[in-house]
Amino acid sequence: MTEQTYLANGNEVRLFEQACRQRLPVMLTGPTGCGKTRLVEHMGLLLGRPVVTISCHDDLTSSDLVGRFIVTGGDVVWTDGPLTRAVKAGAICYLDEVVEARHDSLAVLHSLTDHRRTLYLDRAGEVVRAPEEFMLVCSYNPAYRSSLKELKPSFRQRFVTLPMCYLPPDREAEVIVAEAGIGLPTAQRLVRCATAIRTADEAFHFEPPSTRVLVTAAHLIAAGASELEAAEACVLAPLSSDGGVSEGLREVAAASLADADSPNPNR
Amino acid sequence: MTEQTYLANGNEVRLFEQACRQRLPVMLTGPTGCGKTRLVEHMGLLLGRPVVTISCHDDLTSSDLVGRFIVTGGDVVWTDGPLTRAVKAGAICYLDEVVEARHDSLAVLHSLTDHRRTLYLDRAGEVVRAPEEFMLVCSYNPAYRSSLKELKPSFRQRFVTLPMCYLPPDREAEVIVAEAGIGLPTAQRLVRCATAIRTADEAFHFEPPSTRVLVTAAHLIAAGASELEAAEACVLAPLSSDGGVSEGLREVAAASLADADSPNPNR
Amino acid sequence: MTEQTYLANGNEVRLFEQACRQRLPVMLTGPTGCGKTRLVEHMGLLLGRPVVTISCHDDLTSSDLVGRFIVTGGDVVWTDGPLTRAVKAGAICYLDEVVEARHDSLAVLHSLTDHRRTLYLDRAGEVVRAPEEFMLVCSYNPAYRSSLKELKPSFRQRFVTLPMCYLPPDREAEVIVAEAGIGLPTAQRLVRCATAIRTADEAFHFEPPSTRVLVTAAHLIAAGASELEAAEACVLAPLSSDGGVSEGLREVAAASLADADSPNPNR
Amino acid sequence: MTEQTYLANGNEVRLFEQACRQRLPVMLTGPTGCGKTRLVEHMGLLLGRPVVTISCHDDLTSSDLVGRFIVTGGDVVWTDGPLTRAVKAGAICYLDEVVEARHDSLAVLHSLTDHRRTLYLDRAGEVVRAPEEFMLVCSYNPAYRSSLKELKPSFRQRFVTLPMCYLPPDREAEVIVAEAGIGLPTAQRLVRCATAIRTADEAFHFEPPSTRVLVTAAHLIAAGASELEAAEACVLAPLSSDGGVSEGLREVAAASLADADSPNPNR
Amino acid sequence: MTEQTYLANGNEVRLFEQACRQRLPVMLTGPTGCGKTRLVEHMGLLLGRPVVTISCHDDLTSSDLVGRFIVTGGDVVWTDGPLTRAVKAGAICYLDEVVEARHDSLAVLHSLTDHRRTLYLDRAGEVVRAPEEFMLVCSYNPAYRSSLKELKPSFRQRFVTLPMCYLPPDREAEVIVAEAGIGLPTAQRLVRCATAIRTADEAFHFEPPSTRVLVTAAHLIAAGASELEAAEACVLAPLSSDGGVSEGLREVAAASLADADSPNPNR
Amino acid sequence: MTEQTYLANGNEVRLFEQACRQRLPVMLTGPTGCGKTRLVEHMGLLLGRPVVTISCHDDLTSSDLVGRFIVTGGDVVWTDGPLTRAVKAGAICYLDEVVEARHDSLAVLHSLTDHRRTLYLDRAGEVVRAPEEFMLVCSYNPAYRSSLKELKPSFRQRFVTLPMCYLPPDREAEVIVAEAGIGLPTAQRLVRCATAIRTADEAFHFEPPSTRVLVTAAHLIAAGASELEAAEACVLAPLSSDGGVSEGLREVAAASLADADSPNPNR
């Protein structure tokens, strides 16, 4: 994915850059596989800064973020965690799926996200002021929010929020061609298949297929799988929690891929 | 923010100073971003005392507050926590969002908040009497209270309680201008936008936008974003838990910012 | 507070002394701030014994009470906890808010509270018989009892139980004058205000204001606050969990403090 | 309490001795303070064996029972727990309130309570066969049983079960006189008071007062308290979870103690 | 108990031996005290292999089964757990009451119970292939199954399952005579008493008395207790969770033991 | 089981190989004992790569997967976990029953399953890029899915999903003959028995018997057990959670095995 991809889909690249210039933290929201992680990687390249990625999860403690004491040579030595390393290095620190983290772990971010831009390492007895270059970016998928896991308003209000969504069909097909090296007609059929399923979403109540699964299917086709095989294994089967493909979904896919009866042109 | 800000909004600066003189602990209450942390920083400067801030969270143990034994050089050495350090230094110890802390962690505060003004370090076998200068300040946001998390009356009754609220519109606009360096008309439009949303609060049931988000939006405008872009990213999107902006909110914002059709005067 | 305070309010000082003479443990019950902790301190002075105070909480383990092995100089050494220290020293050991403790932590008290008067340190392999001077005192606030936290009857039956309550108005005003050094009329108005709220208790369903908050308010008045300001910050605001003061409560307070319109005589 | 006490109240002393001779474990059941612990102490004297008492609670781990590795001098050394020590010493091991223990902790007892009479120390890699003299005794108060805490039938079926109950009034008064050294008429009035309350049990739904609280009250009377004061502090107040004494209970007590209007003959 | 006991009660000894010859794991099911543990001990003798018994419980971790790193002489050394020791020794490893174990602890058994017959010690970085002689045997009591604790079908399908039940009355009486050395008529009366209670099971809803409790009662009779005393203490009292014996049960027992009015012939 | 088995039952061997060539992770779904583990072993042989198997369970931490610091010689040394070892070795890493794992443990897989193919060892401060040969394979049994344990769509969408099912009867009998060395007629009767039960599935609501249990039964027959004995112990008894066999199931089995009245031809 190139810079244009983001320019085309909205103002997120510009607003991200403006927030960065003003030393404001950014929150990215949007569905699975819509490109949140790629945007952060893209901005790291564009702004010339390293990106430190932290995948959030239920068990992530504040010690995992800021560091802890570790026994070395019989002694106990403080070792910076990835957040502290990112602050000191003036990097972009990216907290992926921040809504998954325990809220108490996020408390250490408060002083980093307001006018203080400071990290308090209570246990190490150290106070780290973030350099100008440091930037904090978080992301989450609103489709997973639950009453137990919702971010607190006081946390959300600390960020410039940039909502993201899927690419329009033409751009999505271009991305698939660029990523997997298959022909445009096959890519367009895959996008048509995905669009049909996304439209049927309300009836089926599943997380719609992302650009990522289309790229995966395209890779499988490039390796010799038929389009229907690839769509079943990469697009349809992951939709349901039992890995099986219902007859209705198979019909939707088969109809979308109808032109693919002809020999696979990608091999 | 300067001292006048607090003088203007009520008697909190004077009462804080009187409580300090009588060596009484203070409890600040009020909504997100109304200036509780800033008041404590302000009082620290005014009274010439260092401020030790502790962000409370579910996992904060009493050991995190008072200290613990740490292995050093093969030996186990007692290391004071931030509360103990604050007591010994005669500092203002500020427990931010104290309602988030586990109640059992707060038990160590009891002997500090009554006539004893003493910290019992049971594990270290040490008794620390607070010097005259020491002051304990706690804060919480009543909007987050729940039956599980409510502070016990016996805890609340140990403090001089100072309720805080948002600034009046004129003062709020002044603060935005001072903080973000944008023009007064833009600041006033942002305050008008926030006031419209705060008024619509009861219908929408969300945490109203704080002064903080207006300052953030102003910073983004100062970096070149349009007023509507900034309002959407900093004021509207954080209101909902999915980061999206509803059509109704966008209309409210657009109407408040109507005068902003003219070229951005801040660039 | 002096000895007379307790003599006047009931037979608790005499019964406490008699229980002590017979080596029986004592349980103090009563509302927040009615003087339980002060009675124990008073009895310590009267009986010429040191008082070891332990604030109970959810996380207090039996190791916190009796002691644990600690690594020192590469070795593991047993270190007595405050309960064991109190037993060995023949002190009065005071377990404040014992109902908050985990019941399993309290099991170590059983052999101390019956005819054995013995502490079994299973992990240290030590058996400590309490000297004649040792006395165990517990307290709790019955207003906080819940089905989850109720003390077991078999535990309660091990103690001489002394219920305590607030002082009568005249004595309470005397205490306030003695503690905070304000004039008697102001103290009487504060007591009148507290009595009005305590009477309205059933309608409002809150923990009534204790003598402690009146003393705090008196201190604030002594520092220059008006009586209404002090009553709002110290008596009324802590009543509700959001720190705000309702109009009804403010009227009750204003009526009680009516005579205070005249200039503050304490400054 | 002497041997006759148990001989008089049933066949428990003889059956205990017979179970001991056949190397069978014994389970004592009965209400608070009916003498379970004293029976075990009595049998220890009678049989000439030491008694190792373990108070069961929610947090008692199997390591607490059998032992654990402890770091000493830089090395890790296995240290026997009280159960293992009791087995090796051929003692009577008494698990007080066994129903409070975690069921998984009790699993280590299985091989001790069937024909194997063996303790498997899996972590130490040691197998300890109990000598002839070893005996396991458990007790619990059925009044506390709950679905969560009930002993499993397969556990109960491993024991000779001896149900115990309170003494008849005459014997109970004798015990009080012997324990506290007060006059028989006072002891009889205390027993009458307890009997009245025990009879009213179904109406009040509380754990009835045990012989223990009567002995405690007698001690307080011996120290100079009036009979009503002692009954209130030791018999009535522990009945309710708030430590207060209801008017109805006070009337029951006053009526039972009516003869005590005359001067206290114990001083 | 001898080999014939098992031959008589079904085909379990032969099937156990056949499973062992084919290196298949065995699952024993059946009520409390029906002889599961004894069968395993019997097969160990018959097949000439050592038996390693592990009592399962809620807190049994996979480390408790396979081993862990232990600090020795300043270093960390891997120490095999009982399962690993049993595998390496080619023993019969017997997991008693496997349904009590945490399911995650059982995951380490998967590779031992299929064609791999291999134990993966992930933490030690070791792969242990079981010798021909190794055999895994598990047992559980289906009467305790609950939705929370049921073994997963995929786990149950890994075993040859051998259901076991109580002996017929004549054999049961023989076992009692052989175990406790009492006369046959007394043994027969005890069995008659147990059979009466087992038949009344549906009305009373308790775990029926096992052969084990009859043997225990016989032991007590051998020590001089009357038959009714022994039946009450060993058979009836353990049936109910309060250790008491209802009138109805006592009548059932008294009727079954009616012939015992004559002097006890066992003394 | 040989390669042909998989070729015959679908396209899973080819798609697995194509996904491997494109460096895409694979998810296998299907019922207990349908051959998921065997397919992975088969592909390891076919592709000439080692297979590292990790059995997932509730307590599997991310440290168990990626590694942890271990004390050696007084120092703390990082030790790779099986996932990290598999990545570095370019192996096939097989996470068996991945749905059982804690979701937070799975977060470390995210960066391995997208275009990054990278493992971030935050605690070791190391970034491991997977070599071309590395492949991640997961499996789960959809029959066990529950709302608590369902894999997140964003996780499922990262894999090429290959649903698997039981073999057709003829092939299944061939497998049984090949595995257990019994005659074909016996194998066919066992398959007929299994098919009858699988068909009755909806009425009985149990996990249907897998090929694995048929192979186990065949092994027992090969050791001399009758067909009905083997079917009862290996096929029927594991179906119900109490290990007992209902009369209805026994009739189904007896009817299917009817031809087996003749002497067992396998001995």
UniProtKB/TrEMBL annotation, chains A, B, C, D, E, F:
Residues 172-255 form the CbbQ/NirQ/NorQ C-terminal domain. GO terms for molecular function: ATP binding; ATP hydrolysis activity. Keywords: ATP-binding, Nucleotide-binding. It comes from the Bacteria. InterPro entries: ATPase_dyneun-rel_AAA, CbbQ/NirQ/NorQ/GpvN, CbbQ_C, P-loop_NTPase. Signal peptide: none annotated. Residues 25-159 form the ATPase dynein-related AAA domain. It holds the Pfam family CbbQ_C. Belongs to the CbbQ/NirQ/NorQ/GpvN family. This is ATPase associated with various cellular activities, AAA_5.
